[in-house]
Amino acid sequence: MKKVKIVGVPEHFNLPWKQYINSSALQEKGIKLHWEDIPEGTGKMCQMLRNGETDMAVILTEGIIKDINAGNPSKIVQIYVESPLIWGIHVAAHSKYHSISDLENKKAAISRLGSGSQLMTYVNAKNQNWNTQNIDFEIVNTIDGAVESLTQGKSDYFMWERFMTQPLVDKGIFRRVGDCPTPWPCFVIAVRSSFLAENRNEIQQVLQGINAITRHFKEIENIDKILAKTYHQKLEDIQQWLSLTQWSQKPFTENEIENIQNKLFDLQIIAKKSNFATLVETV
């Protein structure tokens, strides 16, 4: 039985993986897939790939491209979610800030350096024509850390996936002042290069299996109710999220990677652009 370790955020995007692991399909292929939730997000998962603490990661596109450019010995093997990620821009419920424009030159809470929350803070700043050199960050590690930081006034705003933070808005802990969607497909599947070289067939089998699930995921009976219960969401919010979310079963094309890198370079998120083969390997 071949053991494969995979990590991802504990969010509704990844319920297909939980269903896949609980099915008998993997055992029939001689693969034992171990999933670990990483609430710290993409920056932590990049570190785990670098350190050999995981074999695969379901990870934000911008974060893994930036980290591979910076020397992470991994490859993107497939797009996982084709649709953009909608980042909510949040302040504490009692905050004096009431619009995105109020947040210029204010301190942003981020999970860690190199995280999606940090990179999307730059994207939002560019969208608003702010000077990105003036952005100050407070590292909070997790959503719970962000709640503490904003509530205590250690930071001023926090960007995170808007539907996963909706319960905090509903409870009157956060207030959302706007949204910022990613200008690219939001999640990809990345694999450590050394693991991929030695286990190409197993990776193919894993991808075939998860793709079979995501291809028909929205058609699962009562999937909206299952998601709402699992992730403590209101049914109407989950139904809206499902309508906006499109999983993918395809690898990147060279043109797609070129366009994403051009955007990341223009945003000064990456200092250089890599060739396609450095970033992507189709299995």
Walk me through what this model shows:
The chain has 283 residues and is of the alpha/beta class. The chain folds into two domains: 2-84 and 184-279, Periplasmic binding protein-like II (D-Maltodextrin-Binding Protein, domain 2, 3-Layer(aba) Sandwich); 86-181, Periplasmic binding protein-like II (D-Maltodextrin-Binding Protein, domain 2), CATH 3.40.190. It is 40% helix and 22% strand. It contains 13 helices and ten strands. It has helices spanning 15-21, 25-28, 42-51, 61-69, 116-127, 143-151, 166-170, 193-198, 200-214, 223-230, 235-244, 254-266, 276-279; strands spanning 2-8, 31-37, 56-60, 74-81, 86-92, 107-110, 136-139, 157-161, 174-181, 187-192. It has a five-stranded mixed beta sheet, with helices on both faces. A five-stranded mixed beta sheet has the order 7-6-8-5-9, sandwiched between helices. Helix 5 (116-127) links the parallel strand 6 and strand 7. The longest helix is centred in the C-terminal third of the chain and has 15 residues, at 200-214.
Low-confidence stretches: none
The number of strands is 10
Which fold name corresponds to the CATH topology of the largest domain?
D-Maltodextrin-Binding Protein, domain 2
- Give the helix tally: 13
The structure class reads alpha/beta
**How many structural domains can be distinguished in the coordinates?**
2
* Overall CATH class of the largest domain: Alpha Beta
- Biggest sheet character: 5 strands, mixed
What is the arithmetic mean of pLDDT? Answer: 95
Strand order in the sheet with the most strands = 2-1-3-10-4
